[in-house]
Amino acid sequence: MSLSRILRLWDEFWFSDVSPKCLALFRIFFGLLLLQFALFLLPDLFTWYGPKAIVSASSIAEANPTVVLDLLNMAPQSNEWMLCIYGIFILSAICLTLGFCSRFFSVICFMMLTTFYHHNPYLLNSGDSLMRVLCFWLIFSDSGAVWSIDDRLARKKSNYKAKEKIAGWGVRCLQLQVVIVYFHAFVTKSPGWVWANGSAVYFASRLENLMRFPFPLDPNIDWISAMWTWGTLFVEFSLFTLIWIKELRYYILALGVCLHLSIDWTMNIPQFEWLMMATLILFVYPNDLSQFLNWLKAKYSVLVKKDFAAGGS
Amino acid sequence: MEWSDLLIDRELWKKLRKIIISLFVIFNFTLIYLCLERTNLLAAGMLKPFWNYVLFFGLEQDFSVFAPSPIQANVHFVATITYKDGVCKIYNFQRLERINLANKLTQERWRKFLDDNLGSDRYPFLYKDIAKYVARKNNEMKDNPPVVVCIYRYIAVVPPPEAKRKNPSVYSIMPLISYEVKAEDLR
Q1: Angle (CA) A181 A126 B44, round 5°
Q2: Contact between B21 and A14 using a beta-carbon 8 Å cutoff
């Protein structure tokens, strides 16, 4: 392969324009998940982040003396300041969901998520890390180009031109971040003997404080545990490799959704699975999404007509 | 007006756009990759000069969920509080297996916080903070403040699959800290 061909492929991958629809749909789901994040924090907000939090500011400063982005430390610690930051976070998440000043509010949401992370780094899980990093990449993408207040406001201008395409590199960064998750999840599992012998899901299913609903197939039976275990590895592997093959993409996405739904059913890991499923939207081909939405619209209008006819008769 | 107009002349941006974006993407994803590989000495060394940047923006990440293997024990935590008059009280930390589904959603952070920090020996400096929290939370009686807080870890190892047994109901107990509460801890 020649250098010029590599450069051409690079250019094509990163700098081709893309339809903004999948990104906009992702923005809406992501914004809703941010609101859910805020809601789940609420009952113990003061315990985790208040001036008398369970982990003291001095312990955190001692463990990590580096300067970090933590807005809660920018004013003297008080409940009022903490509530102010929390309120701004909720407001920003609402604006991002609705697509109002999308880029600006994605910056604010990112700053807030980073603040929550740095203010108590012993609390958040991988899903929270992913949310923060996705928000970072969302800053660089034109997520408010369609299905947003930004777009509605732009339509009112006389020289309005609908955005059929947006710069693709922001979407590519988000996609790359998602495949990194699966890549890392897969490679870190590979040295584990329980993943090799097929008993990993058996052990995970025995963790009492993670249990939600019973497994549809009992992982206490060896071959079922092995099937779940190796199936998980296969799907994770596919989601950073085979997903790039056009003909296989939807099969892999369907497997990914099944994997996340089954984990969400059996284990109490709120948000992470839903966040992962939301990120899979970024891999849907925009034309297919448009066709699907048109099909939904047609179905809806048929239903409305039927209702209207029934009401009229 | 585009946001990039604030930083750079539009014509110059058009010329340099692809180079700047490419460098930005390569730089950040290389750092993210090095972060994921930071147990590797070479990766850690390469990451070192940029660590403050990564940390400042919270770009470090780790997705080794259930890796290299899921934890093979059920753990929970209990604290005992001794008051000034000698009375002793038991304080149970949140146990998700004993609460309903709706509460599980909001209380999941307790599982994460306790299992990661009290369940492992990685952050022993947090034990003191958690003991102080327990003392503050249980300082309910006038002129009878908590004087000592002890925290215990209860562990029950999951039987291997070939044993075909239920999870054991007997836990082994490990004391984590015995903390003498000071007056300022209760403020």
Answers
A1: 70
A2: yes
